[in-house]
Write a structure and sequence with these properties.
By secondary structure, the chain is an alpha/beta fold. It contains 16 helices and 8 strands. Strands 1, 2, 3, 4, 5, 6, 7 and 8 form an 8-stranded mixed sheet that branches. Strand 6 and strand 7 form a beta hairpin. The mean pLDDT is about 90.
């Protein structure tokens, strides 16, 4: 019996589940999710392949699945995450298919033929696929070499249908202000779709060359849409320098990408000046890290002492509401952290936590808390308590971030040379 799940047709259940998980993902888990340049001029029924950089394990897949409008793409995902039955069933409900890699074993790899055949059927029916051409994930802001499997799938699909499908590849650049933290910002930056039919003649004349060219175009398109550092050895310092632009005026992603572009130009045109600049940056970073100050916060417009005093008093004034929210959400919030703290790959933590938050701990534990309140108080009090839980829990999480930033703003006033990288 085949181990490959069959993806069901688009359904109301999927739409409802996706809307519910999207709320937890876009509103609760992330401080802000921004979708830029989403393609709106693609004709209905056009087969699509969404491709993106892969930095944050299953969170990357969720980012795309939850933010592509009415599309319901089937996502190609590494097979090892399908091992547990609960996760497997959930991923299949979210329209994900396993892809086997060499370390999964030769016998397992043979199942990819069945997976790719199903992918071709999906495209031929005018539906959507999504995948990561890198084939694996990495925490660094660096686009790794692409595999040719996706180019092979779309070209084979077109070949089997006389190049009449009109498949378009939609590149997506994913940018996280921090990919391992809750309460950060996420940007999905969509690029111009690539027409697979444009490679028909090259493919018919020399298939390997066409696959190489199509794969290269996917890579170049995604690289232009994301934060990418060529100088991997200086990755952490470069990321720290771009973080200064997160809170400054203008579009956040544009500011960050422009800073990265300027740094790369400096590296290529004036390597000695570049090395000196990064040495100075590393020294200031060390000072700030020792005081627990984030570059994102230090890069904000400086507040006066009066503004900081007023902000501090307001935070203290509303702290009882935050304390109430923290107390009532402590258990459902903490349990997923205990579950994931010993994972071999910590990058999977966020994906597991958001699933546990949305489907297990918060719904179940809050239901028990509401029943307990109803046991000792009247129905009106229990109803008020139920409505207060999500509002105050959300506020408590944001309040904690505001409090930390307030402290950082005060500490950053005493650091020298902060304008060096503004």
């Amino acid at each position: 019996m085949s181990k490959i799940p069959v993806i069901a047709e688009k359904s109301l259940f999927y739409r409802v589940l996706r809307a519910y998980v999207r709320f937890w993902h876009n509103v609760i888990f992330y401080r802000k999710v921004e979708v830029k340049n989403f393609p709106t001029n693609i004709p209905a029924g056009t087969p699509l392949l969404f491709v993106a950089n892969h930095q944050n394990t299953l969170m990357d897949a969720l980012a795309i699945v939850l933010n592509v409008g009415a599309y319901q793409p089937v996502f190609l995902t590494r097979a090892d995450v399908f091992k547990r039955s609960f996760v497997r069933n959930l991923l299949v409900k979210l329209r994900m298919l396993p892809v086997y890699r060499p370390h999964d074993g030769r016998d397992e790899m043979q199942q990819n033929d069945e997976v790719f055949s199903q992918c071709i059927q999906i495209l031929a029916s005018g539906n959507e696929l999504a995948a990561f051409p890198e084939g694996n994930h990495g925490v660094q802001y660096h686009l790794r070499p692409f595999k040719k499997g996706l180019a092979r799938i779309v070209c084979q699909a077109e070949t089997e249908h006389n190049w009449q499908l009109g498949i378009q590849i939609v590149p997506v650049g994913l940018y996280y202000t921090h990919c391992r933290k809750m309460g950060e910002r996420l940007v999905l930056n969509f690029g111009t779709p690539i027409q697979v039919q444009a490679f028909q003649q090259t493919y018919q004349e020399n298939a390997p060359r066409a696959l190489t060219q199509l794969t290269r175009q996917m890579s170049e398109s995604i690289k232009s849409l994301m934060l990418h550092f060529e100088d991997i050895q200086q990755h952490d310092t470069l990321k720290w320098l771009t973080d200064w632009k997160i809170r400054q005026r203008g579009d956040m992603l544009t500011n960050v990408l422009n800073r990265a572009t300027d740094l790369e130009k400096l590296r290529q045109t004036a390597p000695e000046q570049y090395a000196q600049y990064l040495q100075q940056a590393a020294y200031t970073k060390q000072q700030m890290d020792a005081r627990g100050i984030e570059a994102e916060v230090a890069g904000m417009p400086e507040s006066s002492w009066m503004e900081l005093i007023i902000k501090g008093l307001l935070l203290i004034l509303v702290s009882p509401v935050a304390l109430y929210g923290w107390f009532n959400s402590l258990l459902p919030f903490s349990l997923p952290w205990f579950v994931t703290r010993r994972l071999k790959d910590p990058q999977f933590s966020n994906a597991i936590r958001i699933v546990l938050y949305a489907l297990v701990t918060f719904p179940l534990i809050w239901a028990v808390q509401i029943l307990l309140v109803r046991t000792f108080f009247d129905a009106q009090t229990a109803l008020f308590y139920a409505f207060s839980l999500p509002l105050t829990a959300y506020f408590a999480h944001r309040w904690a971030r505001w409090w930390m930033e307030w402290q950082m703003q005060i500490l950053s006033r005493n650091l020298p040379n902060l304008n060096l990288f503004a």
